[in-house]
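Input/output pair, single chain:
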Amino acid sequence: MTEIRAEAIWATALSHPLRVRILRHMLHVRTAQPVELARCWRPSIDTMHRQFRRLRDLGVIERTRDPQSSGRATYRLRSAAATEEALWRLSAPLPVNFGERFSMRLSTIVETHLTALERLRARREQLGLSQPQLARRTGLGEKTVGLIERGQFDPRLSQVLVLADELDFPPDQLFAFKPTDHADACP
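Output:
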């Protein structure tokens, strides 16, 4: 199987909570059918098919020929290892070993996260925008923008990217940071 490494692909794949849930489920059971998951989880079948189609178009999952599926679409992960890594790295940690993984992430990411939020706030102020103006331009709530800037709300990657795009701030510069002493402590 092919390793999927492109961060943009994973950022898109994990930008919707239903897709995150589908990928976690597929890590556990290896194959999944949109119709069966729609019955269990209660979204519409069309919504579930759309999310599976999006994951397939991104190259994260592939359709499989399963003789036991009675003609229903069945999908499998292209790379379980790449999926697990992406879920962990892009703020969608797996429940298994959560405490251990969370402590590793804290040692290397908290300072980066705060720096990114500080950079967003500084850029907003540099452009002369108020929080309500930024909220209207991005479609986020005023309260949400304020909570994000104060570090009281952990935004999804998609929300941070929307803010960065509206503020004309390249994501690679947004998340750039100097390694700290904490980074050496991680294996």
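The domain at 98-185 is CATH 1.10.260.40 (434 Repressor (Amino-terminal Domain)). Residues 98-126 form the longest helix (29 residues).
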